[in-house]
Amino acid sequence: MRIFHISDIHFGLVDERALDWVRECIALERPDAVAITGDLTMRARHREYAAANEWIGALDVPVTANIGNHDMPYFNLVERFVAPYRRYRAIHRMVESEIDLAGLAIVPLKTTARAQWRLDWSKGWITASALAETLARIDALPQGTRVLVSAHHPLVETGTRGTALTRGGSRALEELARRNVLAVLSGHVHDPFDLIEETVAGPMRMIGAGTLSRRIRSTPPSFNEITIKEGKVSVETRNLERVATPDMQIDDVPEDALPPREPDEPVSHVATIPAQDPPVH
Ligand SMILES: [Fe+2]
Ligand SMILES: [Fe+2]
Fold first, then answer.
1. Cα(109)–Cα(150) distance, rounded to whole angstroms?
2. pTM of the complete model
3. I need a labelling partner for 55 at 20 to 30 A (CA). Which of 105, 160, 179, 213 fits?
């Protein structure tokens, strides 16, 4: 079974050459599924969503997608609070809410929030209700089904500095480790990785995909080819520069996952109301 794990396309600032190449790979090689782990757009502009709709709609394989922090209204704060997922809904309707393959399911976990009690809203937050929904979906699967969980933010930071990126991430990882979860797929940090994180409930594999945008950090645009054979997961990080997978995969998730800010972009908003998001994937 083969899954193409792609992330952080950021329509509005895509790397056209890389994106064309990925589309060709999908059309020619026809993976069993494509998992897109969020940040489809740059600033959730209507034209960026239109491009995302067109690109994803043309894929002729099952697709699942997560909403990323860049996919909620950025300039229109009223809409962000009142209807943060309205622009994403067309994507949500087009993709699968969960992909069930033979003995394997891809189940999404929401890590974004319209607002947070901290200055930087770009970081992850797994609310109790988001985690409960994902766990309920996993627990409802036929016994023995193996699971890949897809999320936008890495659940925990694995570097030695600083604190965890994602609020509620450690607890979520622990709960997933208690279940038949092969790995958690994520994006956001724009560099690929393939790490094992220890939790009190046992080890959990975390697989990150790089970006297909021009917002690169340490590695060229790439996507992950994930192969599952007899319950064993292997990852190849494919890229046009032909950099070998071990050289593409970073050893630590960076503490600060925020892409470099452009000079004319406003700074992070200050949260004034608590977030209570409806379940959306
Ligand atoms: Fe991103
Ligand atoms: Fe992100």
1. 6
2. 0.87
3. 105
Q: Of 164, 170, 159, 241, whose CA–CA distance to 193 is shortest?
A: 159
Centre of ligand 1 from the C-alpha of residue 70, in Å: 7
Ligand 2 centre from 257 Cα, in Å?
7
Place of tokens 């990080």: 237
CA distance 279 to 161: 32
Cβ atoms of 164 and 189 closer than 8 Å: no
Whole-number Å distance, alpha carbon 188 to ligand 2 midpoint, is: 4
User: What confidence tens digit (pLDDT) does each residue in 40-96 have?
Assistant: 999 999 999 999 999 999 999 999 999 999 998 877 777 777 788 888 988 888 898
Structural contact between residues 25 and 238, judged by C-beta atoms closer than 8 angstroms? yes
State whether residue 235 is helix, strand or coil.
Answer: strand
Contact between 145 and 103 under an 8 Å Cβ cutoff? The reply is yes
Question: What is the 8-class DSSP label of residue 95?
Answer: S
State the ligand closest to the CA atom of 259.
1
